[in-house]
Amino acid sequence: MRAAILEQFGAPLILKDLPRPAPDPGEVLVKIAASGVNPLDIKIRAGKAAHARTVLPAVLGLDLAGVVEQVGADVTGFEVGDEVYGLTGGVGDLQGSLAQYAAVDARLLAVKPAALSLREAAALPLVFITAWEGLIDRARVRPGHKVLIHGGAGGIGHVAIQIARAHGADVYATTSPAHAETVARLGATPIDRTAMSVAEYVGKHTGGEGFDIVFDTVGGPVLDASFTAVRTYTGHVVSALGWGTHALAPLSFRGATYSGVFTLMPMLTGSHRAHHGEIMREATALADAGSLKPRLDPRTFTLDSVADAHAAVEQGTAAGKVVVDIAQTPGGP
């Protein structure tokens, strides 16, 4: 099979022929149709994601969508020919999705939504799982909640808006003026982060009370701002990038709570992998109900142009999620 290999951090990916893997017990062999590209992929390639514990040489690619080619022993729920998707590799010693085939832990997979193409499905796993763990597992979003999502037009943010809306929340999202229309189309009230202070938008949209849930998808100063935007006593801040050093006093003085999300943990430790499969089944249900659809960059990339796909994400030129079409890559068995 053809695969994109990272042999040295900071170096370009190299296309090579590798043996096609065979599924061990508990695994399925997936013929990969598409691989989603995330900012984390760029950090891993650059050697700036120690938390991903990537073992070189490595096949990168976190998100996968494809067709089950072979079912290993002790696997139930999947059959040859099923179209599946999931957050399956590219960290630790797990093979990633920038290859024509991957043998993956069946617990990480779900049958893809009928309403979405394989390309669209490949755009969802990392961002959906992160958003679901933050809003549902940690913050317990429910009808009537006022939810603020920082970075509402981003990969995690645009999916978080749709999850919160599907659960009956009143959703607001910070964004730049250029993406305000996108946020509004998703059903959230856009907040121009360049024109309003935290105090101003908290006053305007919550009467100064603060938001029930604040979901930070940006990190750094945005997480600090989140601590001042949350509702007193009952409010909850959750962050997908809470890795810096932050003062907790603003949060403590509100009597509010905080949770962090580390989406990679089940892949790195082997623990709680079945929950990722459960979350992906929730994504399938939402998409097939018409409540979830990813934003895709319209350009076509293959393994032969994977460097261009990474450059589009790294340079911030993508108009939605970048997806590499593995099935269109020539060569290999």
From TrEMBL:
| This protein's UniProt keywords | Cytoplasm, NADP, RNA-binding
Q: What is its main location?
A: cytoplasm
The record's section on Pfam families has:
ADH_N, ADH_zinc_N_2
Compartment(s) of residence: Cytoplasm
Q: Please list the residue ranges annotated as the Enoyl reductase (ER) domain.
A: 10-324
Q: How does it assemble?
A: Homotetramer.
SMART domains named in the record: PKS_ER
Its lineage opens with: Bacteria, Bacillati, Actinomycetota, Actinomycetes, Kitasatosporales
User: InterPro entries of this UniProt entry?
Assistant: ADH-like_N (IPR013154), ER (IPR020843), GroES-like_sf (IPR011032), NAD(P)-bd_dom_sf (IPR036291), Quin_OxRdtase/zeta-crystal_CS (IPR002364), Zinc-ADH_QOR/CCCR (IPR051603)
Q: What is this protein called?
A: Zinc-dependent alcohol dehydrogenase family protein
What is the originating organism of this protein?
A: Streptomyces mirabilis
